[in-house]
Amino acid sequence: MAEFARRSAETLASIREQGLLKEERELQGGQQPVIRVRGREVLNFCANNYLGLAGHLAIVRAARRGLERWGYGMASVRFICGTQEPHRELERKIAAFLSMDDAVLHSSCFDANAGVFEALLGESDAVISDKLNHASIIDGIRLCKAQRFVYEHLDMADLAKKLREAKSAQNILIATDGVFSMDADIAPLKEIRELADEHNAVLLIDDSHATGFFGPEGRGTPALHRVKAELLTSTLGKALGGASGGFIAAERDVAALLRQKSRPYLFSNSLAPPIVAASLKALELVEKGAKLRKRLMDNTRRFRKGMEQLGFTLKGGEHPIAPVMLGEELQARQMAEELLKEGIYVVAFSYPVVPRGQARIRVQLSAAHTTAQVEQCLSAFGKAGKKFHII
Ligand SMILES: Cc1ncc(COP(=O)(O)O)c(C=O)c1O
Question: Is any atom of ligand 1 closer than 6 Å to the C-beta of 360?
Fold first, then answer.
């Protein structure tokens, strides 16, 4: 045992020495645009709280009502005694919102992605995945027995090549994030769909960074590109209330099969009733959320324009993730520290999360930010950028 602990300590020390240790700052309160950290109020610009629903009063009330009406937890998986009426209602409403037949709730989108490939693909099948897909897609693919292919990020010529290599497979599945969260770039779904059709492949899109706020009426990247995917996975942990939970939306029989075969669905507890109740409310707010989405997009445009005028380089386009490119790891870390001193909470991302020499601060806008808060963030970036001679 002592040996085991010693080796763990060595690994940990090596992570620290490489400057890769992830520190957790404890918030002294709820998830809001203004948060309290170490006794100080700061503006939060790094949550996935796109529509500001994580701390929304209507959501908190819905969760409380759900708690009182349906109880705290299910103490069961879905097929034993863990399915309540609201679980099915939420699945039906998610499916209708995304124009799919049905949806299958999981404890997280990570679990949805961990379960979907192994449940649907066997040895005679093939899966083709974008190189920069989310970790949960990568892990889900590792768990299945299908032949695996990886295409270069967003590279359609390489995808076509991999499709040709996979042509003897019985089922071919292409998997892509709808929005890639590190660069805020969007998958070229029209081209991917065309290639899929040409090669008789099915398409899985993980739309965690789009559902509820991106694309027409917040219906995500398939609606934005006017394409249909056979499988859509997404999270309840970002725009849709920000608690936890995920789902796979699919055609009716595929969803029915997933209920029989997705291991995280079969062998992990049902989503807790207060989360289900609050997610139903979140979906209702999303469906009449034109104002929230406009506010989010206005904030995004204001921030991006302001940063470019200051002389910063940003990746991405219209998405509320605004990666501010800083290059050197140390510079990104120092900038984030300086910004915190200025009252802006943001996080620096460096290697191995992003390629070496492409360190960045990933700013995330929310509908809950006021114009004054966005301006305050811009002014802090301006000050810190000048201090470190970045602009
Ligand atoms: C693209 C993508 N897929 C899946 C997940 C996992 O979602 P969840 O938090 O519901 O497990 C995330 C969250 O970071 C994500 O960004």
Answer: no
pLDDT at 16 > cutoff 80: yes
Q: Which amino acid, one-letter code, is at 351?
A: Y
Residue 18's pLDDT band, with cuts at 50, 70 and 90, is confident
Residue 222: inside a domain: yes
Give the percent of the chain with pLDDT over 70.
Answer: 100
Distance (Å) from CA 289 to ligand 1 centroid: 22
CA nearest neighbour of 59 among 267, 292, 223, 228: 292
Give whole-number Cα distances, 166 to 26, 161, 190, 207, 311, in Å. 47, 9, 21, 25, 45
Which atom of ligand 1 is nearest the CA belonging to 136?
A: 4
In sequence order, the 6+-apart residues with CB closer than 8 A to the CB of 353 are: 182
Q: Distance, CA 153 to ligand 1 centroid (Å)?
A: 18
Catalytic residues: 181, 209, 238
Q: Tell me, yes or no, whether 183 lies in a domain.
A: yes
- Going from the Cα of 236 to the center of ligand 1, the distance in angstroms, rounded, reads 9
Instruction: Write down which residue in 265, 287, 309 finishes a domain.
Output: 287
Mean predicted lDDT score pLDDT of the chain: 97
Q: 52: Cβ below 6 Å to ligand 1?
A: no
**Does 269 share its domain with 298?**
no
Query: How remote is the CA of residue 115 from the centroid of ligand 1, in Å?
Result: 14
Q: What angle do CA 240, 374, 284 make, to 5 degrees?
A: 20
Q: pLDDT of 305-347, one tens digit each?
A: 999 999 999 999 899 999 999 998 889 999 999 999 999 999 9
Whether pLDDT at 85 is above 80? yes
**Of 256, 287, 318, which residue is a domain's last?**
287
Question: Is any atom of ligand 1 closer than 6 Å to the C-beta of 221?
Answer: no
Mean pLDDT, residues 43-62 taken together: 97
Q: Does the pLDDT of residue 1 top 80, yes or no?
A: no
Residues 141 and 178 in one domain: yes
> What is the reported pLDDT for 26?
94
Is any atom of ligand 1 closer than 6 Å to the C-beta of 176?
Answer: no
* Closest to 265 measured CA to CA, from 142, 144, 116, 106: 106
In a domain, 3, yes or no: no
Q: Is residue 9 part of a domain?
A: no
The total domain count for the chain is 2
Question: Which residue puts its alpha carbon closest to atom 13 of ligand 1?
Answer: 208
- 27 CB neighbour count, 10 Å cutoff: 16
